[in-house]
Design brief:
Number of domains: 2
Helix content: 40-55%
Distance between the termini: 46 Å
Number of strands: 8
Strand order of the largest sheet: 4-3-2-1-8
CATH superfamily of the largest domain: Gcn5-related N-acetyltransferase (GNAT)
CATH topology of the largest domain: Aminopeptidase
Radius of gyration: 20 Å
CATH architecture of the largest domain: 3-Layer(aba) Sandwich
Number of helices: 12
Structural class: alpha+beta
CATH class of the largest domain: Alpha Beta
């Protein structure tokens, strides 16, 4: 049954991607794929992790941002292509999501996406059968890691993929990167600094955000790497419309609000959590020698 839902959601995404330059809303898509609006909304949200409306809006704004940087089309033309009736309406929504006007965004000449096309794992394991296998990521995982990045880009505003690639290579070489898989598909990843007590990257595949993946990665780091220390992570500020649920998830996992920051020109907030000295923790299944590495993880610098 779960595989059937994934197939249906993938078909909906394919339809949206083929009609991004046309009017798209719940009614239009429901009629096209022959679902009731209620069924489509519930199926898509439960499978993809965000609502159909949010996915469409974020994809259209991403394509509009690309045109702002890589074309000379007038902003009003881009606004109409994105489905807005006026440049004013487009500017209002664009600024809410990108924290700058379309004109300002064009002037900076740096494209970053709100939402890239989602590719779903059609061989997804049932939630109650997923093996929580946590490995230390190695350079051999780079291609899979970077493909994974395109699926979770919504959680990292202003992320530059080339810069991230170089950074994550250093994390991997220092054994400060973790990866979780469902078969061959990456479903979760984290990069951390033992020296700074910070989680610098934590992401979960949209299909698996209700599977406890973030909690498993966090528990592993707290148990093996940060026991007795304060740890921190940065995320969206409260009320940021661009947030697809990351802040709420970190708060649910016990992080508390700390200072407000500006990172790469984007308003964020640091969240902190104190790791217990010891935890009643069910050990994950390790692979690729990660069990021996975990015993020595405190020595990582």
């Amino acid at each position: 049954m779960n595989g059937h839902k994934v197939e249906n959601a993938a078909a909906v995404i394919s339809y949206i991607e083929a009609h991004l330059n046309k009017k798209l809303d719940l009614d239009t898509v429901a009629n096209a794929v022959c679902y009731s609006k209620y069924h489509l909304h519930r199926m898509f949200t439960n499978t993809v992790g965000i609502t159909l409306h949010d996915y469409i809006q974020r994809r259209k704004l991403t394509e509009a941002a690309k045109l702002l940087v890589f074309s000379e089309k007038p902003i009003i033309e881009i606004a109409l292509t994105a489905g807005y009736e006026s440049q004013q309406a487009f500017t209002s929504v664009f600024k809410t999501m990108y924290k700058q006007t379309p004109f300002e965004y064009r002037q900076k000449e740096f494209f970053y996406p709100l939402q890239l096309e989602l590719t779903l794992n059609k061989n997804q394991t049932a939630p109650d059968r997923i093996t929580r296998e946590i490995s230390y990521a190695a350079l051999a995982d780079i291609t899979d890691w970077m493909n994974f990045i395109t699926l979770v880009i919504d959680g990292f505003p202003c992320l530059d993929e080339n810069s991230h690639l170089e950074q994550v290579k250093r994390y991997m070489q220092r054994r400060q990167a973790l990866i979780m898989r469902d078969g061959s598909a990456v479903i979760g990843a984290a990069a951390f600094s033992c020296r700074n007590g910070s989680i610098d990257f934590l992401a979960v595949h949209p299909q698996y955000r209700h599977y406890g993946v973030a909690e498993a990665l966090l528990d592993f780091m707290m148990c093996n790497l940060f026991a007795g220390r304060e740890i921190s992570i940065t995320t969206f500020r409260e009320g940021d419309k661009a947030d697809t649920g990351q802040r709420e998830e970190y708060k649910r996992l016990g992080f508390a609000e700390s200072e407000l920051l500006i990172e790469f020109g984007y308003p964020t907030q640091r969240l902190t959590k104190v790791s217990p000295q010891s935890m009643a923790y069910s050990e994950p299944v390790f692979s690729d020698g990660a069990e021996n590495s975990a015993k020595n993880a405190r020595q990582i610098q």
